[in-house]
Amino acid sequence: xxxxxxRPECIWNIDETGYSTVQTPWRQLAKKGEKRxxxxxxxxxxxxxxxxxxxxxxxxxxxxxxxxxxxNVQEHWTLAAPAGTLCNAHLKESxxxxxxxxxxxxxxxx
Length: 110
Prior knowledge:
The chain is mainly β and about 110 residues long. It has 1 helix and 4 strands; from the N terminus they run E-E-E-E-H.
């Protein structure tokens, strides 16, 4: 920091993670010897939504950036997201972060 004269507010940590759109079932408890144990399991494949977030060295953050594996983004997808959340659609089925999405994240966030 001293060599390049960076201030803490100029140092950012950016990370991404993927979330599945299908819930995983909880463990089922049953009596010992019970033959039938009911559980509800979703057999759909689901898709991955990528979340990208950034925090600087003094603790400030910018709103998260979501990447959906769809052609068009619909507004109701972000109703439960934090205020200011930005969304982007990815034309491929993966919904992963690409260089185009990352540049879009930087341009719209910073």
